[in-house]
Design a protein that fits this description.
There is one protein chain. This protein is of the alpha/beta class. It contains 10 helices and 13 strands. It has helices spanning 2-5, 24-34, 51-63, 83-93, 144-154, 177-207, 243-246, 250-259, 287-294, 306-324; strands at residues 14-18, 37-41, 68-72, 98-100, 108-109, 112-113, 120-124, 137-141, 214-216, 237-241, 265-266, 282-283, 295-298. A hairpin with a 2-residue loop joins strand 5 and strand 6 (112-113). Helix 3 (51-63) runs parallel beside helix 4 (83-93). The protein starts with a helix and ends with a helix. Mean pLDDT is 91; it is low at 7-12.
């Protein structure tokens, strides 16, 4: 919607986005609806788009004759990407930046809230996000013409006549009043839900503080920052396991927790490894593949109770004690 609402239509083009973020269906639809060919660019150690590699990818695509229509950085797991650097790269090459802030609502970087960068940004209200309307999301932009065009496309692109008349292909992407009311109630609770997840992040930091070979993914994350200062939104707390140092791997812990009916998941599978995108251009440095191999996301929900977290903690401790004996 941001691409079409911004007037980027037709012709051969490439969209540059994170290799490390797994949002397969959305990227497939963007290819189908806009004709764009996704070009995947790897991450830096934060898990977010590598600005230096983005520049290399743009230069290479332009040299090959492609028109680069947009750069689409993702704020991975609630950490706002380095949009100042990514935006500067885009500006040097005349390429707009459309920010995927689906996971970062409530986070801040360099004094700016998530979703404040780029030509436009999108946030998600999917059921697995911190605040939810059960599905859908929102487009954020400063351009009133772009906002009006997006609303038009999202409401079936109907012409202002008494019968159904269409000169553009539109979508039925409206949010119902009932779900919008749910979202407004959730928005009022967002600060408290962020603080709940910040608390889990601190507890996990203490839990793994003395475990050799294990680091909290995303540090520095602002978990101890005063109110109003830069911080992630702590959507998911994940660890990175160096198996050679720890003597065990991320999947060993995942399996142990699964046997206790506790869900933990690997970090996102890199987009350039997804079968549906086989053959799409990619610029990789190995970072996203390593994070996928060594990373594990742990229970982090706002609705998690103290007793439930204690159960998770006890099973992690049991696992660690077994590996150290």
């Amino acid at each position: 919607m941001a691409r079409r609402g911004g007037g980027h239509l037709g012709g051969e083009r490439a969209d540059l986005g994170d290799a490390g973020e797994d949002r397969v269906a959305q990227r497939r639809r963007r290819r189908d609806h806009t004709g764009a060919t996704p070009v995947f660019v790897d991450s830096d150690e934060s898990g977010n788009l590598d600005p230096a590699l983005v520049e290399k990818a743009i230069e290479d695509q332009v040299q090959s004759g492609a028109h680069v229509a947009a750069v689409v950085p993702v704020d991975l797991l609630g950490k706002v990407a380095d949009h100042a650097r990514v935006g500067a790269v885009g500006a040097r090459h005349g390429v707009p930046v459309l920010v995927d802030a689906a996971e970062s609502l409530g986070a801040r970087r360099a004094g700016r809230p998530a979703g404040a960068d780029g030509l436009a940004a999108v946030v998600s209200f999917n059921g697995n996000k911190i605040m939810t309307t059960s599905g859908g999301g929102a487009l954020l932009c400063d351009d009133p013409d772009m906002a009006a065009r997006t609303r038009y496309l999202a409401t079936q692109a109907r012409q202002p006549v008494v019968h159904y008349e269409h000169v553009d292909v539109g979508y039925n992407y409206r949010m119902s009043n009932l779900l919008a009311a749910l979202g407004r109630a959730q928005l009022e609770r967002l600060p408290s839900m962020l603080e709940r997840r910040r608390g889990w992040r601190r507890r996990y930091a203490q839990l793994f503080a003395d475990v050799e070979g294990v680091t909290l993914f995303g540090d520095p994350d602002g978990r101890d920052a005063p109110a109003g200062e830069d911080h992630d939104n702590f959507w998911l707390t994940s660890v990175i396991v160096d198996g050679e140092v720890a003597g065990w791997g991320a999947d060993d812990l995942r399996t142990h927790l699964a046997e206790a009916d506790i869900e933990a998941r690997p970090l996102w599978k890199p987009m350039h490894l997804q079968p549906v995108f086989a053959g799409c251009p990619s610029y990789v440095n190995g970072t996203s593949e390593r994070l996928f191999r060594t990373g594990l996301s742990l229970p982090s929900g706002s609705a998690l109770t103290d007793d439930q977290f204690a159960r998770v903690q006890n099973h992690v401790l049991t696992f660690l004690e077994g590996k150290s004996s």
